[in-house]
Amino acid sequence: MTQTMPATWRIGEATVTRIEELLGPAFRPQELLADFDPAVLEEHLEWMAPNYYAPATDQFIMSVHSWLIRTPHHNILVDTCGGNAKQRPGSPHFHQLETPYLDRLRAAGVEPEDIDYVMCTHLHVDHVGWNTRLLNGRWVPTFPNAKYVFSREELDFWNPANNPHLPEEPRDVFADSVLPVIAAKQDQVVSMTDQLGDNLLIEPAPGHSPGQVLLRLLGGSDEGLFIGDVMHNPIQIYQPGWSSRFCMDPEQAVQSRLRVLGHCDEHNSLMFPAHFGVPHAGRVRSHGSGFAFAPEEARQAVHL
Predict the structure, then answer these.
(1) What are the backbone angles phi and psi of residue 232, rounded to the nearest 5°?
(2) Which end of the chain is more exposed for a tag (fewer CB within 10 A), N or C?
(3) pTM attached to this predicted model
(4) Cα–chain-centroid distance for residue 280?
(5) pLDDT tens track, the chain, 304 positions
(6) Residue 33 to residue 244: CA distance in whole angstroms
(7) By three-state DSSP, how is residue 253 classified?
(8) Is 18 helix (H, G, I), strand (E, B) or coil?
(9) Within a 10 A sphere around the Cβ of 99, how many other Cβ atoms?
(10) pLDDT score for 300
């Protein structure tokens, strides 16, 4: 008997599977993008709606998901969404969630115990939540056999011991989703440039947050690029100067975005963002003096 798996792409010998937490209309464009111009959206409306923009409610479609990478040697989970039962009153999208995230991971054929690495591109609320789960009143690592990879720059910045002026929510995120991993000695700290095995390279992509990193998956003639929040919506491919209101250094975010877009165009990389709507991934092409987006549908795989 066969069972349909979640959306899956192939890069060389590896597969990449999307593990969903949330998907639907979220921010209005001007709420997300500080320099948003509605005339630009109108130019792209034919392909933006309905998968990336909902005209009826004037909201971008936002996905919150992890990327599960399976190589011949390791299972790697890139970013871990918002998590269940987390107290996030300042972020209503992620406050006290109860989603079947782990069931979706199992539907992809992977148990939490099977994860070898958790790669956190940065330590924002929607990228670290499933690092931990609540067990007998304590936050414990969700993936007991995994090493959790953190950028040192990111870890140092969001640690309240180093930055006493942090607002309450980032303190809570660090306390319930990062500190328990460190206490369990499951953390693996890198300095923004490193590698996991032969075909997984970690590179810096700061701006959205001080120590954000991306992950390159090399697969022979193909490459996957896991970009975290370098972009939140594909319209930024056409307008790379538009940073989100959540970017801590908007100008640096622009430079990281341009570098990623140029790299994807030059290397024909399949780009895996953290928040794009369906089909969630795609290629970047040169277009005049800028870039264009070529969405790439997943291969719907099955397993026995």
Answers:
(1) -110, -25
(2) N
(3) 0.95
(4) 11
(5) 334 568 999 999 999 999 999 999 999 999 999 999 999 999 999 999 999 999 999 999 999 999 999 999 999 999 999 999 999 999 999 999 999 999 999 999 999 999 999 999 999 999 999 999 999 999 999 999 999 999 999 999 999 999 999 999 999 999 999 999 999 999 999 998 999 988 999 999 999 999 999 999 999 899 999 999 999 999 999 999 999 999 999 999 999 999 999 999 999 999 999 999 999 999 999 999 999 999 999 975 534 2
(6) 4
(7) helix
(8) strand
(9) 17
(10) 58
The upper half-sphere exposure of residue 256, i.e. CA atoms within 13 Å in the direction of its Cβ, equals 25
Structure tokens at 255: 């430079």
CA 202 to chain centre: 14
Nearest CA among 260, 293, 300 for reference residue 52: 293
Calpha distance 279→49 (Å, rounded):
13
Amino acid at position 244, single letter: S
Q: What is the 3-state secondary structure (H, E, C) of 139-183?
A: EEECCCCCEEEEEHHHHHHHCCCCCCCCCHHHHHHHHHHCHHHHH
CB count within 10 Å of CB 66 equals 24
Distance CA 50, CA 285 (A): 22
Reference 67, options 209, 293, 274; nearest CA is 274
* Sequence-ordered alpha helix ranges (H) in the chain: 29-32, 38-48, 101-107, 125-128, 152-158, 168-177, 179-183, 235-238, 250-267
- Among candidate residues 284, 278, 277, 279, the one with its CA nearest the CA of residue 225: 284
Residues whose CB is less than 8 angstroms from the CB of residue 96 and which lie 6 or more positions away in sequence, other chains included: 85, 86, 87, 88
Q: What is the pLDDT of residue 5?
A: 66
Peptide bond into 50 cis (omega under 30): yes
Hunting for tokens 């930055």 — which residue is that?
Answer: 163
What SS3 class is residue 29?
helix
Bridge partners (DSSP) of residue 194 are 202
